[in-house]
Amino acid sequence: MKKILTTPIKDEDLASLNVGDVVYLTGQLVTCRDVAHRRLIELKRELPVDLRGGAIFHAGPIVRKKDDGSFEMVSIGPTTSMRMEKFEKQFIEETGVKLIVGKGGMGPETTTGCLENKAVHAVFPGGCAVLAATKVEEIERAEWQDLGMPETLWVNRVREFGPLIISIDTKGNNLFEQNKARFNDKKSAIVEKINSQVRFIK
Amino acid sequence: MDKESAVQSLTDVMAKFTAYIGKRLPTDVKAKTAKLRAAETNPLAIAIYDSMAENQDAADKLDRPSCQDTGVIQYFIAAGAKFPLLGELEEILLNATLEATKKGPLRHNAVETFDEKNTGTNTGSKIPWLDWEIVPDADYALIDVYMAGGGCTLPGSAKVLMPGQGYEGVTEFVFDVITSRGVNACPPLLVGVGVSTSVETAARLSKRAILRPVDSQHPNENAALMEKLLEEGLNEIGIGPQGLTGNSSVMGVNIESSARHPSTIGVAVSTGCWAHRRGKIRINADLSYDILSHEGVVL
Q1: What confidence category does residue B16 fall into, taking pLDDT thresholds of 50, 70 and 90?
Q2: Is residue A182 part of a domain?
Q3: pLDDT at B220
Q4: Residues B226 and B86 both lie in one domain
Q5: Contacts of A62 in chain B (CB under 8 A)
Q6: The domain that contains A146 carries what CATH number?
Q7: Is the same domain home to B122 and B209?
Q8: Angstrom distance (rounded) from CA A143 to CA A48
Q9: Is there a single domain that holds both residue B245 and residue B282?
Q10: CA 20 to 30 Å from B272, out of A8, B42, B73, B216?
Q11: What's this protein's family per the entry (chain A) (predicted)?
Q12: Shortest CA distance to B277 belongs to which of B148, B182, B96?
């Protein structure tokens, strides 16, 4: 059966989740990426959206403005989460956000932020932006439109948005860090094997 | 056809082709991801491959860009010296980008540096980026369109090795880049490696390398061997789709090279994500065209 999280998300909704689990989201999902993070953390500006118990999406979508002034979600996939590593721990503390959706892993600071504040990071498969757009029921609002299409805070109502693969859980586990350690363990033997065959300078 | 209508006609073709490649993957990339899916045994990796295939079907049916990041638009041009619209091509490709941005629609991805404002048109100083090669005596133009997305651009790296580090240093550089930053760049990746004399020559060649077909080979025997060894070695690491582990890491490794200074080995890596959106079109002297990267296209 599909495990579905619904906003507002409570601490207990996340307690049993482990890295590698697959979940889906129903409720509100707000796009939030580089400049929005910088504005909150470095420029101390208040976010125009209340994220307590909420979910953010590291994403910069393609949105079409319809004739009646409303917006249509055309294509929305995740962007590289690691770019937000510098800000995310503090972002979690200040906003009370519970679910961070993006692409690829995040680092030790975010892992600590998730552990201390009971939040999770999850991966939506990168490049699957039309699949994601079909799970957006409506764009409810658009904030900070001065930032341009990719960086605007698009407030989406989503239904069973996923698959979301938990990459950082509330217990301090980080799936990508575990995977990277595995990759690095294998690396030197493989490199050595290749290098015995590429000594072209003689 | 007079010159004005010729310019209009080619602008229209290039606008449509630019928008098209954001929605449908090239034939070689599609075939390769299907092949990797068939060979995959990790259940989570299989589920991701299936999401990828489902996404491409939806993009085709709904006529939408398959990935939201339609990139900075780059054109790699090999133009015949006798191509009739040689002098007009720059303006044609600028207008094609503007038009494709509306038609696609494409995401607005040109931020004017130092002013730090998104232009909202996908055009800006030196954008779309044009890379030129002149083909002596030819009367056609070969144009590669590439959508340089943020995710697959981020791992890009170049440096100059000392000859003592040799091709062994090249291997280490490629593995370091792919196992650290490549993991987040939507694998399985197409890895382009430039082996050359300085940073900018190696970087340009590494980008040219990912414009080559996924399963193509370098004409030099040693370079082709190195492509094969790097591909097998990276796959042995088992990065898997989205970096979540699996039986493969890459769609392929392509090397492009030049001669080098005896004291230097310039090396660079460029990566293409699994949604490697590039297209190759040949414009003939009479402005008829052949699309070489995608089968069965109707613009």
Answers
A1: very high
A2: no
A3: 98
A4: no
A5: 64-65, 68, 70, 104-107
A6: 3.20.130.10
A7: no
A8: 7
A9: no
A10: B42
A11: Belongs to the class-I fumarase family.
A12: B148
What's the rounded Cα separation, in Å, for the pair B229 and B213? 18
The answer as to whether A183 is a domain residue is no
Does A37 qualify as catalytic in the annotation? yes
- A-B C-beta contacts closer than 8 Å: 187
Percent over 70 (pLDDT), chain B: 100
Is pLDDT above 90 for B112? yes
Question: Does residue B43 lie in a domain region?
Answer: no
- Specify the amino acid at residue A137: E
Q: B59 CB near a chain A CB, below 8 Å? A: yes
A4 touches chain B (CB under 8 A): no
- What is the predicted pLDDT for the residue at B186? 95
The boundaries of the domain holding residue B18 are 3-23+66-149+277-291
Residue B190 token pair = 């197409």
In a domain, A191, yes or no: no
Whether residue A69 is contained in a domain is answered as yes
Residues of B in contact with A185 (CB under 8 A): none
- Is B106's CB within 8 Å of A179's CB? no
Indicate if the alpha-carbon torsion angle A89, A95, A96, A101 is positive or negative: negative
Is A80 close to B151, i.e. CB distance below 8 A? Answer: yes
Q: How many domains does chain A have?
A: 1
Contact status of A154 with chain B (Cβ, < 8 Å): no
User: Between chains, do B184 and A82 touch, taking CB under 8 Å as contact?
Assistant: yes
ipTM field: 0.92
Mean of per-residue pLDDT scores for chain B: 97
Q: How many domains does chain B have?
A: 2
* Residues A193, B233: C-beta atoms closer than 8 Å: yes
Among A33, A37, A39, A89, the active-site one is A37
* A125/B48 CB distance under 8 A: yes
Q: Which domain holds residue A163?
A: 4-174
Model confidence band, residue A100 (pLDDT cutoffs 50, 70, 90) = very high
> A83: distance to nearest CA of chain B, Å?
10
Per the domain annotation, does B243 fall within a domain? yes
pTM: 0.94
The verdict on B135 and B256 lying in the same domain is: no
Same domain, B13 and B114: yes
The structure tokens listed for B185 are: 């760049």
Alpha-carbon torsion, ordered B212, B216, B218, B220, to 10 deg? -160
Residue among B105, B233, B273 whose CB faces A190 most closely? B233
A30-57 pLDDT per residue, tens: 999 999 999 999 999 999 999 999 999 9
pLDDT one-digit tens code per residue, A143-174? 999 999 999 999 999 999 999 999 999 999 99
- The verdict on residue B36 lying in a domain is no
Report yes or no: A180 at the B interface, CB cutoff 8 Å: yes
Strand ranges inside B129-214, DSSP E: 129-135, 141-148, 157-161, 189-196
- For residue A184, the chain B residues in CB contact (below 8 A) are 179
Residues B252 and B170 grouped into a single domain: yes
Does B12 reside within a domain? yes
pLDDT band at A1 (very low <50, low <70, confident <90, very high): confident
A113/B contact by beta carbon, under 8 A: no
- A103 has a pLDDT exceeding 90: yes
pLDDT in tens, B267-277: 999 999 999 99
Number of neighbouring beta carbons within 10 Å of residue B3: 10
> Looking at residue B1, what is its pLDDT?
81
Whether B81 and B96 share a structural domain:
yes
Selection from B184, B187, B177 nearest residue B235 by Cα: B187
The verdict on B266 and B172 lying in the same domain is yes
- CB distance from B288 to chain A under 8 Å? no
